[in-house]
Amino acid sequence: MSHHNSLPDHPGDIQKNEEQIDQQLQLAEQLSTTDPQRAIELFEGIIDRLKANRMVEKEAAAFLSLGSCLQKVARLPEAIERYKQAKTLYTILNDQAGIANAEHGAGNINHQIGNVAEAIACCFAALDIRQQIGDPKEVESYNLLGLIHAGFGNHDRALEVWSNCLAIHQESGNKHRMAATLTNMGNVYWKFQEDKKALNCHFRSMEINNEIGEHYGLLLNYVNIGNVYMQSSSWEDALHYKNEAINLCSELGDNYTKALTLASMGMMWTEQEEWKQASECFTPALSLAEEVGAVSLISDILLAIADSSLKEGKPDLVPDLLEQALDIINKTGYNSHAIEIYLTLARAYEELKDHEQAIHYYKLHRETLQERQYEQQAKEVSIMETRLALALLEVEREGYRQKSIELEQTLEEQSGRLTSIALQLASKNEFLAKLTQQLQQASSEATGTKGKKIEQLLASLEDSERRDENWQLFEKQFQHIHSNFTQRLAIRFPSLTQTEMKVCALIKTGLSSKEIAVLLTVSLETVKTHRRRIRKKLELDGGANLAAVIVAL
């Protein structure tokens, strides 16, 4: 008989197979920070084995980690798909924290690629879940919210959100998140051209990343510090940190960031009219961009080389370079630099004395510029509308949060009163049970009129209607606090008897089996029997906590 290779035949084989998978997962997680490309290969192989062995929980976690690795190497559409797959599996598992992590990852990438609506939806979905379950990662969702604000140009609000996040990370000692938050703040200050504040944030982040050995965080620090120094024309310092970034890219195998950094160095040398050094940066940058298939980056580098060639006095090189860039634009629709391309071509043809072509590209430049201005105006209106909608959402969410806190406090107070009522009823029943026992003893010893009076008193104490009234009082208060609990219980578990539903209600109130026995005037053993039957009808295994399950219903 043949067997599927991925499915072990014996218990020992199953255990060995699981141990091997766990070892591979551990290795992939370790490589995710130092060699994400290798980690991606490992995760993809592991996921196939996890599927074959129906290890759903580990499969979901692997998809989540795979999404993070793909994000690090700029394979963003693939990363979003993996986060979606992780979310699907976590939904099946009803793992709320896992769902929130997947939503957060997808939101982060959607923000990176400019899918604003998706980014906001994912961010708030993660935030809602994390607030609901008290997940400390709630602060990461606020961090993403800061990124979204920064993307809208709402920098003050972004810095406010991140300052709060930073304080939380410092209090909890989460150095990874401290470094990442400082990096975000530094980039906003850089956009404000507040170079001193930007450098302060980036250097603090770099110090932390050095301390914890976070190589990718350190790479971002080098790139960002180099950008700040470039902005202030501090060429020597900029060059130092750009070279540090390139060296680290080589160690990590990050060719995308290496190409980007080399291209920015080429532009820096162009500014200084150092054509040879510029060429020595642009040439490998273009090769690396082509190697990783980053078409938008290829187009940007071609434009940078053309601009450098024109400034160097070599206009004859420009048309061929920018025709390649235009070809990319036509194929991909990536036209963020079309205006600059047309203008550079027009100037090149003008220097080449080809006036017809020069006029042609000047016209295209003007037309594209007008279109872009209209688009920019529409975009600004859209951004303002989105910023307003986001601000209203935040106000609304804060209102809901405050209301939720107040409702939770009220519920705690009411639950306390309900438990008090239940305990009072239990105490009353216990007292009546003892009194009944004493009267029964007295009745057996009494004769005549005295005996008859005791029997009448006993009948009054044993009146079931009064006991029903006591229960009705409790049930009324219970329904007020936990509305429709018994109805929901009956719908989900129709085989439960009325008595078993009463026991469930009392368990939800927090009473012990002994207190329930007294309140229902039955023996402790009877309550234990009810609990066993309830467990069976709720299909709970031996390890499940009945009280926790009922409280969660």
Present the secondary structure layout.
Blueprint: H1 11-34, H2 36-52, H3 56-72, H4 76-93, H5 96-112, H6 116-133, H7 138-151, H8 155-172, H9 175-191, H10 195-212, H11 215-231, H12 235-252, H13 255-271, H14 275-292, H15 295-312, H16 318-332, H17 338-351, H18 355-445, H19 448-461, H20 464-481, H21 485-492, H22 498-509, H23 513-519, H24 524-537, H25 546-552
State the shape: elongated
The SSE string, one letter per element, is HHHHHHHHHHHHHHHHHHHHHHHHH
Major beta sheet summary? none
Radius of gyration: 35 Å
What structural class do helix, strand and pairing data support?
mainly alpha
- Low-pLDDT runs of 5+ residues are 1-11
The CATH architecture of the domain at 1-135 can be given as: Alpha Horseshoe
Q: How many individual helices?
A: 25
Gap from first CA to last CA: 47 Å
Please write the CATH class name of the domain at 1-135.
Answer: Mainly Alpha
CATH topology of the domain at 1-135: Serine Threonine Protein Phosphatase 5, Tetratricopeptide repeat
Strand content: under 5%
Roughly how much helix do the residues carry, as a percent range? over 70%
Averaged pLDDT, please? 83
The overall strand count is 0
- Can you tell me the CATH superfamily of the domain at 1-135? Tetratricopeptide repeat domain
